[in-house]
Design a protein that fits this description.
- By secondary structure, the protein is an alpha+beta fold.
- It has 2 domains: 1-30; 34-149.
- The chain is built from 1 helix and 8 strands; from the N terminus they run H-E-E-E-E-E-E-E-E.
- It has one helix at residues 2-28, and strands at 34-44, 51-59, 63-71, 82-93, 100-109, 114-124, 130-138, 141-149.
- Strand 6 and strand 7 (130-138) form a beta hairpin.
- The longest helix is centred in the first third of the chain and has 27 residues, at 2-28.
């Protein structure tokens, strides 16, 4: 009896460990939805505060993106190379399944040509998820990626 127990316990522990790893990786193996975008500068919005871009989006949603971005600080800070910004992103999926809007906030570094934004999806597909933008500014146009992290998985 003692011999059987001493063999069974390690086998049982190994089986539990394998099942635990398998269960833990099944949900972690699913990558968050991602999109790539290219936005062409379309000008200043009618409100005089937002700069706007429009262009194609591909990936988990395929269609068009409209971006309205404004500087958060006072107008005198516009001379600074780094801006604190707020943006409204509206993605219109051609199929209508993955359309959404998000209110994002972050930084634009005009000197290095980078943009980093994050914020909640406020309407549509994956509402309540966290959206993160990592992009570049080239000749006034925006390119980059947007990842969506379902609620509760924000890093």
């Amino acid at each position: 009896m003692l011999r059987l127990t001493s063999i069974s316990i390690p086998l049982f522990a190994a089986a539990i460990g394998v099942l635990g790893v398998w269960a833990g990786t099944s949900s972690a193996a699913v990558a968050p939805p991602t999109l790539t975008f290219r936005g062409t500068f379309t000008g200043v919005a009618a409100d005089g505060e937002h700069c706007t871009w429009e262009g194609p989006v591909e990936g988990a949603a395929r269609g068009r993106v409209a971006i309205a971005l404004r500087q958060v600080e006072e107008p005198v800070a516009a001379a600074n190379p780094v801006w604190h910004v707020a943006a409204r992103w509206t993605v219109r999926d051609d199929r209508g399944v993955h359309s959404f809007a998000a209110n994002l906030e972050g930084m634009v570094d005009w000197k290095s040509g980078t943009i980093r934004l994050g914020g909640p999806v406020t309407d549509g597909w994956l509402e309540g998820s966290w959206a993160e933008v990592d992009g570049r500014i080239v000749n006034g146009d925006l390119t980059g990626g947007l990842s969506l992290r379902p609620a509760g998985t924000r890093r």
